[in-house]
C-alpha cells in the first residue's frame, strides 16, 4: 500500500474510521484501515500532519485514540491513548517538536502529550472552557493555539505559559434593543505575517481579532448569508478567507474591505471541512453530500469532483472513483430491457369487444327503466 499512498494528494477521514486518500491525477480514492471491524466509535474527527516533511499523518478518533499513519509505508504505525471518550470528541489536533501532541476535546480540556514523559499522563493540561467547537495551531508559532465554541469566545493560549490565555476576546456590543448578542465560534485561523486571528460563527458572522492592540472586540465584522458558518480556510496571501455554511454555500471574503469577492457553486450539502492550498489558488471542500471538490479561487470554477463511497465493509482495498458526468460504464452494466411489440387486434377480438359493449348498454337500459 506504500505505492498507492504516495500517489494521494488529498486525505480525508470518514465516519466509520476509514482514512481515505484521493489521487486527483488518477481519479482514484484508496481506503486505509487497520481493523477488520468498522464502527462509529472509530469515527475520524481530527487530522493533522505529524512532521514538517508531511510523511506522517495523525488521525484522531472518537474513542480517544490518536493513530499515526505513515504515508511512505501506507499503513498505521502507532496508536496512542490521548484522552477519555467521556470528555467528548476531538475538536483539534496538533503536533509539536519531536513526538509531542496537542489534543483538545469538546469539554474544553486541552492536553500536551510527550512520548518521553513516561506513563499515560499528559505533560501539561489546561481548561479552555465548556462547549469548545474548534482548536487551531498557529503555523508560525507552534506553541500558540486558539480555541472557541458555543458561549465560549476566542482564546489564544501559549503552551509554554498555560496558566492563563494570552488573549481573550470580548463579546460584541449589545444590539439596538440592549440585548446581549450570543457567541458561537465554529472555526478560526491565524492570519500569516500578523498577529490577527479570523473566526467564523454559527450566526453567519466573520470576525477578525487583533491581539496586538488593546481592543478585545473584533476589528472587522462581516456577515455572510443567513445560515450558520461551519468551516473556514485562508488562501495563499492572507488577504481573504474562504468560508462555508450548513447549506453548502462557499464564498471568498475580502479581509481588508469586508466584501464578498465571489461564491463557489456546485455543493449540495452542508460543508464539513475546507482546506486551501498553501501556495496555489485552490481550495478543497467536502460535506454531507460525500463529494470531494477542488475549486479554483481565480475563476471560481470546479477543477475536480470525486464521489467518496461509504465503504462500511471495505478494509483497505483500492476503490475506483469516477466523475459524476462519466456514466458510460454504469449504463453498460445495467440490464437491458426490451419492449414487447403490441399485438394487432384480430377480427375475433373486435367481435368480442362489440358483444361486451352491447351487454353493457343493455344493463344501463334496465337500470334506467327500474
Helix content: under 10%
How confident is the prediction overall: mean pLDDT? 84
Strand fraction equals: 35-45%
Specify the number of helices: 3
What does the largest sheet look like? Answer: 4 strands, antiparallel
Describe this structure in words.
- The chain is mostly beta strands.
- The protein has three helices and 28 strands.
- It has helices spanning 2-7, 328-333, 347-369; strands at 10-13, 19-23, 28-32, 44-49, 56-61, 65-70, 75-81, 90-95, 101-105, 109-113, 124-127, 132-137, 144-149, 152-158, 167-168, 185-190, 197-201, 205-209, 220-223, 229-233, 240-245, 250-254, 260-264, 271-276, 282-287, 291-296, 302-307, 318-320.
- A four-stranded antiparallel β-sheet has the order 1-2-3-28.
- A hairpin with a 2-residue loop joins strand 13 and strand 14.
- The protein is extended and about 100 Å long.
- The N and C termini lie far apart (87 Å).
- The model is unreliable at 311-331 (pLDDT under 50).
For the structure shown, list the relevant keywords.
28 strands, four-stranded antiparallel sheet, mainly beta, 370 residues, WDR74/Nsa1, phosphoprotein, 3 helices
Précis, in short:
By secondary structure, the protein is mainly β. The protein is 9% helix and 40% strand.
Write the SSE topology.
Elements: H1 2-7, E1 10-13, E2 19-23, E3 28-32, E4 44-49, E5 56-61, E6 65-70, E7 75-81, E8 90-95, E9 101-105, E10 109-113, E11 124-127, E12 132-137, E13 144-149, E14 152-158, E15 167-168, E16 185-190, E17 197-201, E18 205-209, E19 220-223, E20 229-233, E21 240-245, E22 250-254, E23 260-264, E24 271-276, E25 282-287, E26 291-296, E27 302-307, E28 318-320, H2 328-333, H3 347-369
Antiparallel strand pairs: 1-2, 2-3, 3-28, 4-5, 5-6, 6-7, 8-9, 9-10, 10-11, 12-13, 13-14, 14-15, 16-17, 17-18, 18-19, 20-21, 21-22, 22-23, 24-25, 25-26, 26-27
Region (Disordered): 308-370
Biased composition (Acidic residues): 322-332, 347-356
GO cellular component, one term: preribosome, large subunit precursor
